[in-house]
Amino acid sequence: QCSGSMTHLAKMMSDVYGIPFLRVSYFGLEDTASALYDVARHFNDPSVLKKTGELVKAEVSAVYPQIRSYRESLAGKRAAIYVGGSFKAFSLVKALRHLGIDTAIVGSQTGNREDYDYLEQICDEGTIIVDDTNPLELSKFMMEKGVDLLIGGVKERPIAYKMGVAFCDHNHERKIALAGFTGMLNFCREVHASLLSPVWQFSPAAQNRRQRRQIMELKDEKRAYGAVC
After folding, report:
1. Per-residue confidence (pLDDT) for residue 172, from 0 to 100
2. Domain segments of the chain: what residues?
3. CA separation (Å) from 170 to 81, 92, 152, 225?
């Protein structure tokens, strides 16, 4: 559920009842593994840490070959991320990197300065970071960056479809779970199905976007060639 509200509840339980808490994410290979190790270390029991390592190794080995096969067809795509809480965005950036997808735009509705500083650290140079943006501004940046995929909630879906851009729903009311190692595989399937759907060949907006992307890439190549010369 919402990281902000759950963290508030966890802090209250810690203050009132002395119950310790950890802030972890169970989305994506990297963050799920880190979360399990953090929980194991909390108990200060070598046997728990050992079993956790064995579990992580087994789970990653089971799903990684399939994730790698998805990466072959998704590498080089560009994504925009706009979600409610920035904590969710952190994990999405890392998960997309496993698929070879570049995060061109990322932002949230409720992030603070520390959140955006961290996003700047984990994103590539040139990534646009937005705070509490609006549909017009988000659409403008997506067009400028030649984005292929938008990850957001129900309010962002119409933006993607009007622009001929693939969409991945990352809302709480999902029917297919994205948590854990199996959840990462579900995420890969959804991203792959949306990005490579044959429906985009019939979308004028998608065709125009591809043409703009090609023009942008040609301009980038010319600038790079001029710099070398």
Report:
1. 67
2. 3-196
3. 10, 10, 5, 40
Identify the CA nearest to 106 among candidates 196, 124, 164, 161: 124
Residue 51 tokens, joined? 């079993």
102-108 and 166-169 beta bridge pairing: unpaired
- Please, are residues 119 and 49 in contact by the beta-carbon 8 Å criterion? no
Q: Count the alpha carbons within 13 Å of 169 in the hemisphere toward its beta carbon.
A: 11
Please tell me the distance from the alpha carbon of residue 162 to that of residue 170, in angstroms, as a whole number: 19
Please tell me the distance from the alpha carbon of residue 159 to that of residue 42, in angstroms, as a whole number: 43
11 contacts 3 by C-beta, under 8 angstroms: no
pTM assigned to the model: 0.85
Q: Which CATH class is domain 3-196?
A: alpha beta
pLDDT tens digits for 62-107? 999 999 999 999 999 999 999 988 889 999 999 999 999 999 999 9
140 and 82 in contact (C-beta within 8 Å)? Answer: no
The sign of the CA dihedral 138, 141, 142, 147 is: negative
Q: Which long-range contacts (CB under 8 A, 24 or more apart) does 3-9 make?
A: 3/85, 3/87, 3/88, 4/85, 4/87, 4/110
- Which parts of the chain register pLDDT below 50? none
DSSP letters of 49-95? HHHHHHHHHHHHHHHHHHHHHHHHHHTT-EEEEEES-HHHHHHHHHH
Give residue 175's pLDDT. Answer: 75
Distance between CA 138 and CA 79 in Å, rounded? 12
